[in-house]
Amino acid sequence: MAAATLARRIGRSGVLPLCCRLPAWDRAARPPPGPAQPPGLPLAPCRSFSNNKIQVELDESSGVAMMKFKSPPVNSLSLEFLTEFSISLEKLENNKACRGVIITSALPKIFSSGLDITEMCGKSIEHYTEFWRAVQEMWLRLYGSNMVTVAAVNGSSPAGGCLVALSCDYRIMAENPKFSIGLNEAQLGIVAPFWFKDTFVNVVGHRIAERSLQLGSLHPAPEALKLGLVDELVPEEKLMEKAAAVMAQWLALPDHARQLTKTMMRKAVLDRLVAHREEDIKNFISFVSKESIQKSLRMYMEMLKKRKS
Ligand SMILES: CC/C=C\C/C=C\C/C=C\CCC/C=C/C(=O)SCCNC(=O)CCNC(=O)[C@H](O)C(C)(C)COP(=O)(O)OP(=O)(O)OC[C@H]1O[C@@H](n2cnc3c(N)ncnc32)[C@H](O)[C@@H]1OP(=O)(O)O
């Protein structure tokens, strides 16, 4: 399906069309590109593409795409951002030349500030439905991706930004103690949904996740490494080089073995959301519609603005 058509259909419904929603964790492993590719078969024209929020470049010789978030000031995950993110992942997933994606930010000091709080304040039920479905869609695509996914975390990454990193196969963070990462929802007076929690537990284990979630902790990079929230720290100027080296190491394995192993590790968590998607949307709507939650979110936004001035 042409990207423009896909974008229009998502724009209308907030959901990727069914024909494009075959979950990655249900698909057969793809054959590796190269000799297995029938000679002369054209690859999808996807070398580089860009939209308002995200820039993607695919190096077809290595099979690695570089995805950069470029939505100033803080790469917040708005409905538009999430839709573009899902479209970009879908394009890469469907491109046989692409085996891995490195996700990073084009902005200094910020990987992503998480879900756009303004999308959760004073909006209609229809809007909340569309927004939350887009959050779910993004996570299902990223966590269930057949590609190798490496997060090169080059700045702070609270809440939804942390979820993006946690959903990748490997996390490398710039070793700057001013950059922090974590699921800080409790600090905003809101609750990380079960699938944020499950993703976190799968990375750091139950005890660390429980303490960190209850306290809404944002962990400075060195602490994040100690907790296992990120896999390694490197000087900022070495981040992309390191991400490329890690990617090459992961791509040295046969795709089918790695993909089936990933599916085995992640399927239960993915299936849980797939089975409870509509209920999860209802929970989100009833939660954010509460006056007390709206008040907490407004106060948090005011605090951010005051802190600035
Ligand atoms: C039993 C339970 C049952 C049910 C539960 C059901 C459902 C669950 C319900 C809800 C779940 C929601 C899950 C939410 C996840 C999230 O991701 S919430 C977002 C959390 N994010 C944050 O806390 C980050 C906040 N931002 C910051 O800390 C800082 O901005 C920064 C460190 C990212 C960057 O700092 P600076 O570089 O100093 O930039 P500024 O602070 O000046 O920000 C610039 C500009 O951007 C605005 N902004 C920042 N973050 C956001 C954001 N996330 N959304 C929207 N806007 C944001 C900020 O206000 C500034 O705006 P202006 O003042 O310039 O207008």
Automatic annotation (TrEMBL):
It is found in: Mitochondrion matrix. Its EC number is 5.3.3.8. GO terms for molecular function: delta(3)-delta(2)-enoyl-CoA isomerase activity. The keyword Transit peptide applies. InterPro entries: ClpP/crotonase-like_dom_sf (IPR029045), Enoyl-CoA_hyd/isom_CS (IPR018376), Enoyl-CoA_hydra/iso (IPR001753). CDD domains: crotonase-like (cd06558). One of its GO terms (cellular component) is mitochondrial matrix. Its main location: mitochondrion. Keywords: Acetylation, Fatty acid metabolism, Isomerase, Lipid metabolism, Mitochondrion, Transit peptide. GO terms for biological process: fatty acid beta-oxidation. It catalyses: (3Z)-octenoyl-CoA = (2E)-octenoyl-CoA; (3Z)-hexenoyl-CoA = (2E)-hexenoyl-CoA; (3Z)-dodecenoyl-CoA = (2E)-dodecenoyl-CoA; (2E)-tetradecenoyl-CoA = (3Z)-tetradecenoyl-CoA. PROSITE patterns: ENOYL_COA_HYDRATASE (PS00166). It holds the Pfam family ECH_1. Pathway: Lipid metabolism; fatty acid beta-oxidation. Homotrimer. Key enzyme of fatty acid beta-oxidation. Able to isomerize both 3-cis (3Z) and 3-trans (3E) double bonds into the 2-trans (2E) form in a range of enoyl-CoA species, with a preference for (3Z)-enoyl-CoAs over (3E)-enoyl-CoAs. The catalytic efficiency of this enzyme is not affected by the fatty acyl chain length. Belongs to the enoyl-CoA hydratase/isomerase family. This is Enoyl-CoA delta isomerase 1, mitochondrial. The gene is ECI1.
